[in-house]
UniProtKB/TrEMBL annotation:
All copies of domain ABC transporter, residue ranges: 6-239
UniProt entry tagged with the keyword Nucleotide-binding: yes
Key words, A-Z: ATP-binding, Nucleotide-binding
Protein name: ABC transporter ATP-binding protein
Highest taxon listed in the record's lineage: Bacteria
Pfam family, one: ABC_tran
Family of this protein: Belongs to the ABC transporter superfamily.
InterPro entries: AAA+_ATPase (IPR003593), ABC_transporter-like_ATP-bd (IPR003439), ABC_transporter-like_CS (IPR017871), P-loop_NTPase (IPR027417)
A single GO molecular function term of this UniProt record: ATP binding
Organism of derivation: Ahrensia kielensis
Length: 261
């Protein structure tokens, strides 16, 4: 599966009572690019991601993958194109790690079909990439939080999506595995949208940044133009100060509470 172009066209979402949670926004993300979604708690990050993986239907507007509205496609076809790794994890702890990862192949099977050699090859590859081969026979419920997170990323990779949605993918991970997930994001041949709390990480791994505040877009574009001291301070209600780290010119932020030094 090749990377897909993502278009968000005047999409928004409101509750049944009409309360706007995500205000109309439009953006385009070219195939193979990585977009970070950042903002304070309640900014609308999770709602935006839920629109992308078709958990929520936009109140108006559309989400398109390679020019096709995802709500015009069958659920199976969407699942073959879009994979999501969420903060919520499966509750069926009796499954083994391999069985969890094999679930990523479900959209490619008919009701009567069984696992085949190609499925096994893809699952083996996903387990290796996430350094989970030795855990393949372990019950999911016996894993640490970080190991479970890696298993969920492996399941998404086994799905072979053209668009990968990651909701705080480094949660529960130690520093080493955080770095491994970031390296994996950089190396994957797919379009990726990920929410991140760590702005320094977002600036280092993302091609584009979507900055949200209270359900509205503050800015969208390259990290260097979106993550300014002024925009970060306003979005998070802090005093933000950035510097460029040599020799890569990567942005690095430090923060203080408003009115304090």
């Amino acid at each position: 599966m090749s990377a897909a172009k993502l278009n968000v066209i005047n999409a928004c979402w409101s509750t049944r009572s009409g309360d706007p949670i995500l205000k109309p926004l439009s953006l385009s993300l070219n195939a193979g690019r990585v977009m970070g979604v950042v903002g304070a708690n309640g900014a609308g990050k999770s709602t935006f991601l839920r629109l992308l993986y078709r958990y929520l239907k936009p109140s108006q507007g559309s989400i398109e993958i390679d020019g096709r509205d995802i709500w015009s496609l069958s659920p199976r076809l969407v699942a073959q194109n879009v994979a999501a790794v969420l903060q919520e994890q499966p509750t069926d702890f009796a499954l083994t790690v391999r069985e969890i990862v094999e679930l990523g192949r479900t959209p490619y099977r008919s009701i009567l079909s069984t696992k085949n050699e190609n499925d096994s090859t893809i699952v083996d590859s996903a387990l290796r990439k996430l350094e989970l081969s030795e855990f393949a026979g372990r019950r999911f419920g016996t894993l640490s939080g970080g190991e479970r997170q890696r298993a969920m990323v492996a399941r998404a990779l086994a799905q072979e999506p053209s668009l990968l949605i990651l909701d705080e993918p480094t949660n529960h991970l130690d520093i080493r595995h955080q770095l491994e997930i970031i390296e994996l994001i950089r190396d994957l041949d797919m379009t990726i949208v990920t929410s991140l709390h760590d702005l320094n990480m977002a600036a280092g791994v993302c091609d584009e940044i979507l900055l949200l505040k209270q359900g509205a877009v503050l800015a969208f574009g390259p990290p260097q133009t979106v993550l300014t001291n002024q925009s970060v301070s306003y979005a998070f209600n802090v005093s933000a100060q950035s510097e460029k780290l040599m020799p890569t010119d990567r942005l690095h932020f430090t923060y203080t509470l408003m009115g304090r030094t």
